[in-house]
Structure formats: C-alpha cells, structure tokens
Design brief:
- The protein is an alpha+beta fold.
- The protein has 3 domains: about 55 residues, TATA-Binding Protein; about 160 residues, Ribonuclease H-like superfamily/Ribonuclease H (Nucleotidyltransferase, domain 5); about 50 residues, no CATH class.
- It is built from 9 helices and 10 strands.
- It has a 5-stranded antiparallel β-sheet with strand order 1-5-4-3-2, with helices on one face. A 5-stranded mixed β-sheet has the order 8-7-6-9-10.
- A hairpin with a 4-residue loop joins strand 2 and strand 3.
- The chain is globular, with a radius of gyration of 19 Å.
- The termini are far apart.
- GO terms for molecular function: magnesium ion binding; RNA binding; RNA-DNA hybrid ribonuclease activity.
- Its cofactor is Mn(2+); Mg(2+).
- Keywords: Cytoplasm, Endonuclease, Hydrolase, Magnesium, Metal-binding, Nuclease.
Length: about 280
C-alpha cells in the first residue's frame, strides 16, 4: 500500500473533507486528528498538526507536478455542488487566452471556495465576456435518476468531458494544455469514459489546480455562479430557505421541507443518496 504525506492548513483540511463527503465509506476521529475517512480507494488521516496522510494502492495521481500555470492558451474545468445535499451538480469548462489573462489580471481571481458569493456574482459576467466557456447543470431530479447506475465520480468524469466536448461543438479549438482539478486517477477517469462517443484526451490532472491555473479558477467561479443562480430559483419556487453543505443543520432543513412539501418532492431539490435523507426521516 502506498503512502503520501502532505502539509495542509486547517481550512484546506476542512475543504478536503467537504469535497470528499459524498465518497466517504467510514469516518472516525482518532486522537490528535480532525478526522480519518475511508473511501473506496484510500484512507485519509488529517492530523491537527496539519499533516495529512493518504494511504491507498495507487497514489501516483496525487504527486505534485511541475506547474505550468503561466502557459496560455489553457483550458480548465471544475465542479461545484458535489458536497451539498441540496442543489444541483455543476461543471464548467473555460478557455483562457493570453489576452484574456491580461484583461482578468486585475480581478484577483482564485478558487471560488475562497471568494464570497456576492463577489462570485460580480466576477462571472466579466469572465464570460472574455473567455469561451461551457456550463453544465445537472438538476436534482436528473441527478437522482442517473445516480442509480452511476456513482458520483463517474458522473463528474462524464460532465468534465462533456463540458470540453461542448466547447468543441461551439466551434472553439481546445488548447494543447487542458487542466482538471484532480479528483480521480487519470486511468480511472478515462475508464469511466470508455463508452462515450467523444472523449477529450491529453488532459493534465493536478491537485489544487483551482489555486494554480487561471482557467480552472475561472471555471470554478462560473460553476459556482450557475449553482447560486439555480439555488436562487429553487428558493423562489418553494418560498423556502435551503441550507448549504451536508451537516446537521441540513438534516433539520430537509425535515422541514418534507413536512411542508412531502417526501416525494425531495427528489427535485436534494441528492437522495446522501446520509442526510435517512437522518431527516428519522428526526
């Protein structure tokens, strides 16, 4: 079994837990740790010292690679909503030319998780104005239907690929340098796509890419903005305040939603396979 140790801030450790929330098979809290979680492919132990140990059969995909963050043109993609019980899953892909990078340089663009939502809403139109992009929104009813036969990683692989395919169909030429914020091994990514009619190849996979590459950061903002717009529409439709994330407050929120609108309606606003569903029904 391979082992890899990284030094991370507390916020990065908490963000990692949130990002992997839908993949957790078992979670414990040994002494001096924030958590120890097991997924299908690895065990992650996050210590309060900031040391994070990854253990699995193949961790080569997590190794840091030489950064090419100033290479333009570049295309990047990122996803939002995979750790939220309520709301859609959104994937965006974005092409950034050298000229676009210069125009965006004053905006201090970074990973959407580090930017407040009101700033996301201001930045998204400026990115759209100068960068070719593709945004895919999977509403909850569709997500729940697809998830019966495809797990979350499978769904994300297909969405990232389709976002790039859509850019090609729009008439854009993809750059030689394409980046995905690493969430799965490269070989596994392409294995999930083996039955797809069109597959974009030669993609560079790198962890924490949203903090290293402008194209991924822009895609992250576009995805987050689309998520927020969909969230707004969802709250307006039901005249109901939904809680973000997947914590205990979400359980209570789900219970309240069920009481007002019925359990059947939950499939239109939530990812039913999350543990929150069972918790809400047991409250």
């Amino acid at each position: 079994m391979a082992s890899l140790t990284k030094k991370m801030t507390k916020q990065e450790i908490l963000d990692l837990r949130q990002k992997l929330s839908s993949h957790i098979v078992k979670e414990t809290k040994p002494d001096y740790t924030y958590y120890q979680i097991k997924t299908d492919s690895m065990t992650i132990t996050a210590y309060t010292s900031g040391k994070v140990v990854f253990q699995g059969q193949d961790l080569s995909w997590m190794e840091e690679t030489e950064s090419e963050n100033n290479t333009y043109p570049q295309a990047g993609s990122d996803e939002v909503g995979t750790g939220d019980y309520f709301g859609p899953v959104v994937v965006a892909a974005c092409i950034v030319s050298k000229e676009a990078a210069q125009k965006l340089s004053s905006l201090k663009i970074q990973d959407s998780k580090q930017i407040k939502d009101d700033q996301i809403r201001r930045l998204a139109p400026e990115i759209k104005a100068v960068c070719p992009h593709s945004i895919l929104i999977v509403q909850n009813a569709k997500y729940n239907d697809v998830h019966q036969n495809h797990n979350m990683v499978d769904i994300k692989c297909r969405l990232h690929n389709q976002a790039y395919v859509n850019l090609v169909h729009k008439g854009y030429t993809l750059p030689d340098f394409i980046i995905i914020d690493q969430f799965v091994q490269k070989n596994s990514y392409y294995r999930y796509l083996k039955n797809e009619k069109e597959v974009i190849s030669n993609i560079h996979f790198e962890t924490k890419a949203e903090n290293k590459y402008l194209s991924v950061a822009c895609a992250s903002i576009l995805a987050r903005n689309a998520f927020l717009e969909t969230w707004d529409a969802m709250e307006a439709k039901y005249d109901f305040h939904f809680e973000k994330g997947a914590g205990s407050s979400v359980d209570i929120c789900a219970k309240s939603f069920i009481e007002r609108f019925g359990q059947k309606e939950l499939t239109k606003v939530a990812k039913l396979h999350f543990k929150n569903t069972a918790k809400a029904l047991s409250l």
